[in-house]
Write a structure and sequence with these properties.
Layout (H helix, E strand, L loop, with lengths): L12 H18 L13 H4 L4 H18 L18 E4 H18 L1 H8 L10 E4 L11
Parallel strand pairs: 1-2
Length: about 140
């Protein structure tokens, strides 16, 4: 499971569809509808909030918006309320790690997206996150 802190616009089509699917799985875990992945480290930051379901719904909403801009037809009914969500912090180290990780994926799958991302100087975050100083997040499984 990979729940990117980077803006979904950087993902290729395969990555965007996978993110949608994996974020929906995360939502099911947070709702208690599946025990699979219930201890997955990527969920820690959502579980640490006062309203994990609202936060994951807000996360999904941004993916949905990116999908709409690309002409994809994701099922909006799968997203619940995201009222009163708060920004979630993400560290500079995490963003750099994700940037490198995504570049590795794009180098294999989509050279156009790879070159565009590799030339990007200021990375845009997923709208749910705000940047803070720090190393790679403690929950990240580094390869």
């Amino acid at each position: 499971m990979r729940i990117w802190s980077l803006h979904p616009k950087y993902l290729d089509s395969k990555g965007l569809v996978a993110l949608w699917r994996e974020a929906l799985l995360a939502k099911n875990v947070l709702e208690g509808r599946t025990k699979r992945y219930s201890n997955h480290p990527q969920l820690e930051r959502f579980k640490a909030t006062s309203h994990p379901l609202r936060q994951i719904n807000a996360y999904l909403s941004a993916i949905l918006e990116e999908a709409k801009q690309r002409g994809y037809n994701f099922d909006e009914s799968k997203i619940g309320s995201s009222l009163d969500v708060k920004f979630m912090p993400v560290t500079t180290g995490q963003i750099l790690y994700e940037h490198d990780h995504l570049l590795g994926k794009l180098r294999v799958r989509n050279l156009t997206k790879y070159h565009k991302l590799s030339e990007t100087i200021e990375l845009q975050l997923h709208p749910l996150f705000n940047l803070i100083d720090g190393d790679v997040e403690a929950w990240e499984i580094q390869k």
